Amino acid sequence: MEQKQMLGEVIYMRIVSTQPELAGKITGMLLEMDNNELLSLLESEDAMNNKVAEALKVLQDYAATDAPQ
């Protein structure tokens, strides 16, 4: 659990520069992944950017379907 928290802090700091308003939510989404996968994301900027883009798409899709009609 302690490792997950440390990973979360590092991941948050990477995300907040590009997605300041959604960094907490995206970090939470990514933290559901396995620790080894998270470590891989931290080693590859491209992989991290792809996962963040994926999470953003999920959030946008959710917001679109959750919006009042």
Automatic annotation (TrEMBL):
One of its GO terms (biological process) is protein polyubiquitination. It comes from the Eukaryota. Residues 1-64 form the PABC domain. GO terms for molecular function: RNA binding; ubiquitin-ubiquitin ligase activity. SUPFAM superfamilies: PABC (PABP) domain. It holds the Pfam family MLLE. GO terms for cellular component: cytoplasm; nucleus. This is PABC domain-containing protein. It comes from Leucocoprinus birnbaumii. The lineage of its organism: Eukaryota, Fungi, Dikarya, Basidiomycota, Agaricomycotina.
